[in-house]
Structures are given as structure tokens and as C-alpha cells.
Amino acid sequence: MINAEVARLFERIADLLELSGENPFRVNSYRQGARAVEGLSEDLAVLVDENRLESVKGIGKSLAQHIREFIAEGRIPLLDQLRERVPPGLPKLLEIPGMGPKKVIKVHEELGVADIEGLKAAIADGRLEHLAGFGKTSVKKIADGIAFLESSGTRTPLGVALPIAESLTEQVGAIAGVKRVEIAGSLRRGEETIGDVDILCEAVDGERVVGAFVALPGVRRVLASGATKGSVTVALPEDRELQVDLRVVPRESFGAALQYFTGSKAHNVRLRERAGKKKWKLNEYGLFDAKDKALAGEDEEGIYKALGLPWVPPPLRQDRDEFEGKIDFDDLLQLADIRADLHMHTIASDGRNTIEEMAAAAKALGYHTIAICDHSKSSVIANGLTVERMKKHLKDIRAVAKRVEGVRILAGCECDILPDGSLDYPDDLLAECDWVVASIHLAQGRGGTGKLSATERTLAAIENRWVSCIGHPTGRLINRREAMDVDMPAVVAAAAKTHTCLEINAAWQRLDLKADHVRMALAAGVTLSINTDAHSTQDFLQMRYGVLTAQRGAARKRDVINAMTPAGLLKRVSGKRGG
Ligand code: DGT
Ligand code: CA
Ligand code: CA
Ligand code: ZN
């Protein structure tokens, strides 16, 4: 559906009109249009096809025209014109959390601020704080917002970088003379965002291998090309680039180099200290004793072993607690342990596949259980189901479950937690479900006066007997939207007490809970549920990002409901329901 995109563009037009001092009625018509489009359950493209666009309340002649333009050309000319008229740095100011159009106009007109740099200067020298309508608190919020904006977008999300890196490693592996290839760096550690991709290969003739690497199709720019190292960039969406470093090392150093270039820097510093205490030396060439005799280097295990340590799984190389001997690395959750996915959508709401198709794909992955969790009615933009439709959908799921063998299909829903803390479906409907994921989608920003905080809403949902799991508990979108202001210790404590699962949403845009929260949840005894929130069978493959996140949080197999036996899983679900 293009509806969400069109709604966003209408909002942007309204912003720009407002920034250029347009009359409020015209501005408002675009905002209303955005809401009308967001509230539609039908695809705009279908409405255009069937000539029914203007029958939608809130979409008048000119907005309808824009929608047709967008479908035909992928752009709205008015938006392009506005972008030319408004100083180019101003719209960016609107992206700062805490800056609305009125504030932007004000700093522009009264302080001459035209971009983020100008705004930072006005904060630094105190002019902003003294502007009427700002004050200390709001300036602090704006400063934080700028920091967030500037820190995001420069690093590449895990789920974008990993497939690119895998395709490149495959191509490097096919270069003549290359014996083995591994991904290193933050990507091997499963960090949620990646600065650059580090690839390591074993070969003798480095110059030739690097030469072939920098000439691979897909390379956009060559940054460096030498005898042991090549650096290139590949293209990303939105005109961005991702740097990829290839290092070529000889067999006897491969393990040492892999260890060194996997990092993290902090982990390596600690490891070198251990070597230093024995008067040994550890670097990317190997581990050497006081007489420079090589003790290890060909593989990573040998290095850790020589230093009296078990091999540390890369996601745990954080200089946190991996050297203390408290974590049993053999217990760490593995992707192969995952046998269930308990949050996914079908064509009944905003998914692209049927119940049968999702079940077949899950079976092919060797899963024993899935839960179909389509959206509830208030998620209008995601085609959420009314009570009646959900009742029928649950019946449909059960009918399919009867027919399909080899994988158990739970009939569930993803129920919205409303701004007042109530759930979008009545208890009797929730009780009919086998599994309920409760999530906040609406009003994620701080509620206005009288509205409950995100924490209060989440706690209210946790207290409901029929809520099995809280979906994407903080609502953050990596590089795009900050987490809600959730009191995580309180949520974790309540989840533990009520036997409510907390989700690690495995979609790479979310990874929510994040690794630090995973640790917090586990310390409190919470059971995690790692789910892809799949909107198509393809999305099942995102499970690995959730598992990497769980591993960085030191989650064990027994901490995760998706890794339990079929019986164990059902027992865990019915535990909370008191049945
Ligand atoms: P990134 O790329 O920012 O996401 O993070 P990393 O961890 O991939 O960092 P990167 O690409 O700069 O370097 C890869 C690894 O190489 C890093 O994790 C540890 C190692 N490394 C790089 N430079 C140094 C250094 O100056 N000292 C030490 N001990 N290790 C380094
Ligand atoms: Ca890197
Ligand atoms: Ca690097
Ligand atoms: Zn969902």
C-alpha cells in the first residue's frame, strides 16, 4: 500500500506550507488529507483505478490530483516547488524532536537560524534559551534531539549490511587463490548498526586478490588497493554508500587476524593485557612468547586457549563480563535452537501471504509452532481487524491448523494498547486467542495532558491475564525514531511477576528489546520471545538478527520461548492464563 507514504508526503507539504507562511486553512487541508489517507482501509491505488478517490471524506480536488501524480510519477510537483522556495536547511529542523513548524519559523525570523549548524550556535551562546516560548527545558530537549539526529543515519543497519557483506564474501571466496573468507568487525559481533564492513580472507598472492576484489561488480568507488588490503564502497539506498575493507592474510595468521579485526576494541585491549601479564605479545599476526616464538595464530580457539580462556562467541566480545567465567558459552542461544515464530501477519491485515503460506514456510524452516497475529482494529493504517472480522479470522486460522500437519498454528492477534491503557479488543475475544501480542503503535510520542505514559500503558497491558507478550516494547526504529520513554526496570519487573513474555522483535529496523534490555529482562527472570513480525514468508529470515541481539544480551536457550519444546512452549503460554 502506498497510503502511508502519501500520508507522510501530505504532512511534509503541510509543514513546508506552514514554513512558507501559507494560510492555516490550506495547511490544514493537507493535514486532514494525511489523516484521511492514514485512516483508509483500502489501497489508494485501487481507489484511483476505480475512480472513487474524491468520494473519500477529506480528499478534495487538489489532494486527489496529487495522489494521481504520485501514482503516475512517483512524486508530487507541488512538494518539489515548495522544497525550492523554503530555505533548504529549514525542513531538516522539523526533524528535530521538539521542533515544530512554529518554533522553526520563530528561530528563522528572529535569530536568522537557517539550518542545524545555526541552531546549534544559538543554543551554544544562549540566544535560543532567551527567545520567548523556549526556556531551559525545551532547549535541552532540542539539543538532545539534534544529538539524536546527528548520530543516526551515518551507520548502516545490521539487516542492510549483512546481506551485502555475505554476497561480497561469496564473490571473494570465488577469486582464484582464496582459501577461506570470514566476515569480521562489528558485523560479526551482530551490532545493530555497522560503521564499515570488514572482510578477511586467506590467500598467498594478496595483490592479485585485492585487485580482483576492487574490480567486483557492485563496487562504486575504490578507496585503497594494496598488497594486503583493499577498501571500496558499495551503493546503498538514498544515495548513501557503505565502506567495505578486505584484508588478505597468510594461513598462519588467519585466526589472529580474525580475532583482532572482529574486536571489539575494548575486548581486544583486555585480551592483550592478559597476554602482557605473561610477557607475551598478541597482535593481528599471532600470539608470541617473550622470545617471539609463535604460540597460536592459525585459529581463534588456539589464541583464547593459550590465554586460558574458552573461545568467546563474537556477540559477547564487549569487555563486559565475558572474561569472568560466569557465562557458560555452550548455553548461549543459537539460531538453530529457534523452533517457533510467534508474531506474524497475513493478508487478513497488512501481510502479503496467506495463513497456509506462512505455515508452509515455517515448516520448511523446521519450526514446530507459529502464531498468526494480525493487527487489531485501531491500527487502521495496517488494515486492523474489527471484532467481527477477528472472530472470523480466528476460525479461519483454526480451520487451517486442522488441515496442516507438521507445524502447530496458534490463533493469535497483535492487539493495540490504546492511549488510555486499555486494549483494543475486549477480554472475551482475547481469551478466545491462543496467544496475544500487545503492542503500542498509536500515540507513541509523549501523550498530552490526561493521557497515560508509555510505561503506564505497557504495565496495564502486562496486568491483563490474556496478554501473552509485549511486542516491540520500546517502539524505537533504528536511525529513524527514538524509543518511547519506557521505565524498563518497572516493565521488566511486572513482566517477570505476571509471566508475560517480552519480545525481541527481530526486524532489523527494530531490534526491540535491544541487547541491554535483554540483559535487564533476563536478570529479572523474564522469558523472552524472539519474533520476526513477518509480513511475508521472506521476513522469516530476519530471525537471525533477533538471535544476534539475544546473544549480545547473553540469552540462553532456556530463556527463550521460541526455543522450547512444543509442550514446554504451550505450558509456558497457559502458565499466565491460569489454565
Ligand atoms: P564499526 O565498523 O564502527 O561498526 O566497528 P568495528 O568494531 O567493526 O570497528 P573497525 O571497523 O574500526 O575495526 C574493526 C576491528 O578491528 C575492531 O573491532 C577492532 C580492530 N581494531 C581496529 N583498529 C584498532 C585499534 O586501533 N586497536 C585495536 N586494539 N583494535 C583495532
Ligand atoms: Ca567495521
Ligand atoms: Ca573497518
Ligand atoms: Zn506486528
What does this structure look like?
The model has no long low-confidence stretch (mean pLDDT 93). The longest helix is centred in the first third of the chain and has 17 residues, at 3-19. The chain is an alpha/beta fold and 579 residues long. 42% of the residues lie in helices and 15% in strands. Strands 11-12-13-14-15-16-17 form a 7-stranded parallel sheet. Strands 2-4-7-6-5 form a 5-stranded mixed sheet, sandwiched between helices. The protein has a 3-stranded antiparallel sheet with strand order 8-9-10. It folds into 3 domains: 3-152, DNA polymerase, domain 1 (Orthogonal Bundle), CATH 1.10.150; 157-319, Beta Polymerase, domain 2 (2-Layer Sandwich), CATH 3.30.460; 335-342 and 414-443 and 454-577, Metal-dependent hydrolases (TIM Barrel), CATH 3.20.20. Helix 19 (454-463) packs parallel to helix 20 (488-498). The protein has 23 helices and 17 strands. It has helices at 3-19, 24-38, 44-49, 61-73, 77-85, 90-94, 101-111, 116-124, 135-151, 158-173, 185-188, 206-214, 254-262, 265-277, 300-306, 355-364, 387-403, 427-432, 454-463, 488-498, 515-523, 543-552, 566-577; strands at 156-157, 180-184, 193-194, 197-202, 219-225, 229-236, 240-249, 281-283, 286-288, 294-296, 340-344, 369-375, 408-416, 435-439, 469-470, 501-505, 528-531. The structure holds 2'-deoxyguanosine-5'-triphosphate (DGT), calcium ion (2 copies) and zinc ion. Residues 185, 196, 198, 245 line the site of one calcium ion.
Question: Which value, in Å, is the CA radius of gyration?
Answer: 27 Å
CATH topology of the largest domain: Beta Polymerase, domain 2
Which regions contain 5 or more consecutive residues with pLDDT less than 50? none
Molecular shape: globular
Strand % is 5-15%
CATH class of the largest domain: Alpha Beta
Extended strand count: 17
CATH architecture of the largest domain: 2-Layer Sandwich
- The CATH H-level superfamily of the largest domain is Beta Polymerase, domain 2
Treating each run of at least 4 consecutive H or I residues as one helix, how many helices? Answer: 23
- Tell me the strand order in the biggest sheet: 11-12-13-14-15-16-17
The total domain count is 3
Helix coverage percent of residues?
A: 40-55%
Q: Report the end-to-end length measured between terminal Cα atoms.
A: 40 Å
Structural class call reads alpha/beta
Bound molecules: 2'-deoxyguanosine-5'-triphosphate, calcium ion, zinc ion
- Give a quick account of the main beta sheet: strands, pairing sense, barrel closure: 7 strands, parallel
**Average pLDDT:** 93
